[in-house]
């Protein structure tokens, strides 16, 4: 049955009186309601200091300006001078931010809150807030004073902020939006929604990341509007000279984040909201998914096929059909009579098993999860304390209130059985939350909200995040401190601390391949670097070419998983015939060769807050307002890719940023700062390596950890500019890295016409199992006469393919070849 039919079948049961109420409400005619008057701040007349903050008042309303760091300042508005509870799900615990110094200076026309880097000017004439650097260049300025409106729906306020937009200003960020990279000229809203088969520019989608980056005059800043209600953004769309953001409730509360580099804005956003935990190494291998692989024989067969065809794969997924009547934490024993045995056999063959868990718990008095939830009042309730029900896959369901720490704790323990069965990772779906028929929960549903309490209007956008947080914490305990693997569809700012994400139910079209490339770049600069699309498209049928091109992009997606809807044809890498299989195999192998490089990129994200995918605008910020090649991006520090986006495409124009670049497949060197026409035969795509980089490479393995590595291969690309590269190695699945049990190596490569030096230093307590590097040099412009490693001469060796290489002790500090 097609997904839409299944949904309709279940939704047809949904017309209870309650739903009819809602429908009537929606259908009420809008009568002639006069426009509601907005109130604006008056002139600031006084201020008080409190710790790192200054509170300005116009006599009635107050604005708090709080200095978090030299480059991070928060602005809050209290229309009646009483600020709301200072609590946020987005911020990481133990925020470790301090300004080096700050002060307040009063002039005739303004109050100046100054840090070592930023001046926040509060104008006396009109209460406009302006952010400048210390040299006086304006980065971001109010167009109007902060304003609000009595919220006629449910008390509180609608809150608004309107900023000036300069003529060249470009906007990036905002999570999973399916629009062009530069958001200018568009309006968006944030209300996590199950958007099966979404389209280009459709909005809202699954995630709420109310953070954007503005680039004006070549300089970048960020705004993080930390408000969980339904929020809205207008990027110079209504009026070309202004950008606004507003919300249907909560507080006007935003962080101004200074650049001037986009990279620094993203890093500072991570300083507030945290980075991704280190995923287990296997989680960044290739994953095969399907709605659904069942019964057991089918799962085993798919796994066997991978090994037989020698196509690497680390994980296989079980979608909802593994459950007994879609009851979470149960097995359908007809399909899976002995899950423990199956999972153990898969594990012995190098496969991890990942299973889906949804939030909807079937109303069934004989089902222990329902009983426990009901007895302990763990499920969400309506305003009158009556339980709340909705229809999802299991039929009638109730839904845990994950905003209650007790509920999260309980939910975390429910995974015990699955973990004992050997399940290695968990996939949380439908957590927008999605409810058939009515979309989501009614607005009056109550949430505990960490003790601060609130309705679903306030909790909706963080529901999925709190669900996967509870999953993550639960798994972490149950797996005895092995790193969990979690993936979620819904998210709010900060979800990266608990989970990876995918972009939901996309479509098997070339347009969607492009949309996915935009979404992943956007997610990456919005804090959610561990992201992926359903490779091949969830719904619809790709042909071999689209599937293969998408697989090529998948190699450079931080999360690499093929997935598809239940009513589509087979989607394994061999499903489209041998010609396509061979190319897919070659590209999946490339993923496995690059694993040490990719793992290093994840470490750089975790430790140094660097996004994994980097749009051209981030590499060369002056290109931001006139971005031409939106689908091109850097993958980590040293690789640039430009996926092929059209059927039958023979070649494509690629822009190479400044510097020299090697074409990956034949090591031709190109000068950057220009556009080039690159051939795109089906078994290749434009992949370029930055000159001067060190790219570590694993031998092809069928799954991570399959082979012991005796000598780690390093490919060193000659370059004349001094260039940095990194390499990170650890156990691959423990939290020992938190105690410095890792090895982080740093390389500096510098070439001259007739010699090349490579310097290495390292830190950390982990001792890798290999002793030597097998070093290959690429692009040397001279003949090698002498190789010197820390004062000792060595000679060139030849590998089994007669390629020259050097065997070097892993502790080397300086290597010179001339
Ligand atoms: O209503 O679990 O986005 O990945 O395969 C559809 C079945 C529910 C939606 C997810 C998709 C998953 C599907 N789910």
Automatic annotation (TrEMBL):
Residues 63-234 form the Glycoside hydrolase family 31 N-terminal domain. Residues 610-695 form the Glycosyl hydrolase family 31 C-terminal domain. The keyword Hydrolase applies. Residues 712-779 form the DUF5110 domain. The keyword Hydrolase applies. Keywords: Glycosidase, Hydrolase. GO terms for molecular function: hydrolase activity. Residues 277-601 form the Glycoside hydrolase family 31 TIM barrel domain. Coiled coil: none annotated. Belongs to the glycosyl hydrolase 31 family. This is Glycoside hydrolase family 31 protein.
């Amino acid at each position: 049955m097609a997904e839409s039919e299944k949904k309709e079948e279940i939704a047809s049961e949904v017309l209870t009186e309650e739903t009819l109420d809602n429908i009537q409400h929606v259908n009420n005619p809008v009568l002639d309601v006069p426009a509601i008057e907005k109130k604006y701040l008056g002139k600031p007349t006084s201020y008080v200091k409190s710790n790192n903050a200054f509170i300005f008042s116009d006599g009635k309303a107050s604005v708090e300006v709080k200095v978090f760091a030299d480059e991070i300042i928060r602005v809050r508005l209290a229309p009646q001078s009483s600020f709301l509870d200072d609590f946020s799900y987005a911020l990481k615990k133990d925020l470790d931010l301090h300004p080096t110094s700050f002060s307040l200076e009063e002039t005739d026309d303004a109050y100046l809150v100054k840090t070592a880097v930023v001046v926040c000017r509060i104008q006396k004439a009109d209460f406009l807030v302006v952010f400048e650097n210390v040299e006086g260049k304006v980065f971001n300025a109010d167009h109007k004073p902060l304003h609000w409106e009595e919220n006629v729906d449910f008390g509180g306020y609608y809150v608004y902020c309107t900023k000036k937009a300069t003529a060249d200003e470009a906007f990036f960020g905002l999570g999973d939006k399916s629009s062009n990279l530069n958001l200018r000229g568009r309006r968006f809203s944030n209300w996590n929604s199950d958007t099966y088969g979404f389209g280009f520019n459709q909005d809202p989608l699954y995630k709420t990341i109310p953070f954007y980056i503005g680039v004006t005059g070549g300089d970048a800043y960020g705004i993080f509007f930390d408000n969980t209600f339904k929020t809205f953004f207008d990027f110079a769309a209504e009026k070309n000279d202004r950008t606004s953001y507003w919300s249907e409730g909560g507080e006007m509360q935003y962080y101004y984040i200074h650049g001037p580099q986009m990279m620094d804005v993203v890093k500072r956003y991570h300083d507030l909201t945290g980075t991704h935990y280190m995923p287990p190494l296997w989680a960044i291998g290739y994953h095969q998914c399907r709605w659904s692989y069942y019964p057991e024989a089918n799962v085993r067969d798919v796994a066997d096929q991978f090994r037989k065809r020698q196509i690497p794969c680390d994980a296989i997924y079980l979608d909802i059909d593994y459950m007994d009547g879609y009851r979470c934490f149960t097995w359908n024993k007809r399909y899976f009579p002995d899950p423990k045995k199956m999972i153990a056999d898969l594990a012995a063959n190098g496969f991890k098993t990942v299973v889906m868990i949804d939030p909807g718990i079937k109303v069934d008095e004989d089902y222990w999860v329902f009983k426990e939830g009901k007895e302990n009042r763990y499920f969400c309730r309506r305003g009158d304390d009556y339980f709340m029900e909705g229809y999802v896959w299991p039929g009638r369901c109730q839904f845990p209130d994950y905003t209650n720490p007790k509920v999260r704790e309980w939910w975390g323990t429910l995974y015990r059985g699955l973990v004992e069965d050997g399940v290695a990772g968990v996939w949380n779906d439908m957590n927008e939350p999605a409810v058939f028929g009515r979309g989501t929960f009614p607005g009056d549903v109550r949430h505990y909200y960490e003790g601060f309490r609130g309705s679903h209007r306030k909790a909706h956008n963080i529901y999925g995040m709190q669900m996967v947080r509870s999953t993550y914490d639960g798994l972490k305990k149950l797996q005895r401190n092995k790193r969990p693997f979690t993936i979620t569809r819904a998210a709010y700012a900060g979800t990266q601390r608990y989970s990876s994400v995918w972009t939901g139910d996309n479509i098997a079209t070339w347009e969607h391949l492009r949309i996915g490339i935009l979404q992943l770049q956007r997610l990456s600069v919005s804090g959610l670097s561990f992201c992926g699309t359903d490779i091949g498209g969830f719904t619809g049928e790709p042909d071999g070419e689209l599937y293969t091109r998408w697989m090529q992009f998948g190699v450079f997606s931080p999360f690499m998983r093929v997935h598809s809807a239940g009513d589509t044809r087979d989607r394994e890498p061999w499903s489209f015939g041998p010609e396509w299989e061979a190319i897919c195999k070659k590209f999946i192998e490339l993923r496995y060769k690059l694993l040490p490089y990719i793992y290093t990129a994840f470490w750089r994200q975790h430790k140094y807050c660097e996004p994994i995918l980097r749009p051209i605008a981030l590499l060369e910020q002056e290109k931001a307002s006139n971005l031409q090649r939106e689908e091109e991006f850097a993958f980590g520090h040293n690789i640039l890719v430009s996926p092929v986006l059209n059927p039958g495409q023979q070649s494509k124009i690629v822009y190479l940023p400044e510097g020299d670049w090697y074409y990956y497949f034949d090591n031709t060197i190109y000068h950057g700062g220009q556009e080039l026409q690159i051939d795109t035969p089906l078994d290749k795509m434009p992949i370029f390596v930055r000159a001067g980089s060190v790219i570590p490479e694993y031998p092809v393995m069928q799954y991570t950890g399959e082979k012991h590595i005796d000598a780690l291969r390093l490919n060193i690309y000659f370059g004349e500019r001094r260039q940095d590269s990194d390499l990170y190695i650890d156990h691959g699945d423990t939290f020992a890295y938190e105690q410095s049990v890792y090895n982080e190596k740093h390389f500096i490569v510098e070439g001259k016409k007739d010699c090349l030096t490579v310097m290495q230093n390292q830190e950390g307590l982990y001792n890798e199992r290999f002793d030597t590097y097998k070093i290959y040099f690429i692009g040397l412009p001279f003949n090698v006469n002498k190789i010197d490693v820390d004062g000792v001469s060595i000679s060139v060796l030849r590998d089994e393919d007669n390629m020259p290489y050097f065997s070097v002790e892993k502790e080397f500090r300086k290597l010179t070849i001339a």
